[in-house]
Amino acid sequence: MVSVNSTTKKTKFTVKTTSVKQVALLGDFNGWNETSHPMKKGKANVWEIELNLEEGEYQFLYRVDGQWQTDDTAQRVINSFGSENCLAQINFPTPIKKESKAAPKKKAASPAKKK
Predict the structure, then answer these.
(1) DSSP states of 43-68
(2) pLDDT of 62 higher than 70
(3) 33 partner at 20 to 30 Å CA-CA among 6, 25, 101, 106?
(4) Which long-range contacts (CB under 8 A, 24 or more apart) does 83-88 make?
(5) Which residues face 64 on adjacent strands?
């Protein structure tokens, strides 16, 4: 699964696997380099990594114990080898401006004009 933290603007990739020793994230953002983004095993067999990616569209796959694995929650695109890559669309949410809860200040009344 791919998610973006709206505060830190970091993109988090997570994949759940069982009985594996090694998981890496590969994609067009790292030249499909198998060693540049190893993932760390967290709780409940969930492997994860956070990256600082710019807004845009990225293709990626997981490498699980030497085998390619897709992300079941991601969109797919056909790659040049005729198989599928996952697609991550990274968009940073626009921050919501907080409205002031203070009552609006009243303007002082102007003095009455004499006729």
Answers:
(1) GGGEEEEEE---SEEEEEEEEETTEE
(2) yes
(3) 6
(4) 85/27, 85/59, 85/60, 85/61, 86/59, 86/60, 86/61, 87/57, 87/58, 87/59, 87/60, 88/2, 88/11, 88/13, 88/27, 88/57, 88/58, 88/59, 88/60
(5) 23, 67
The mean pLDDT value for 38-48 works out to 94
Residue 23: which of 79, 61, 73 has the closest Cα?
A: 61
Q: pTM higher than 0.85 for the full model? A: no
59, 53 Cβ separation under 8 angstroms: no
Q: What's the pLDDT score for residue 7?
A: 85
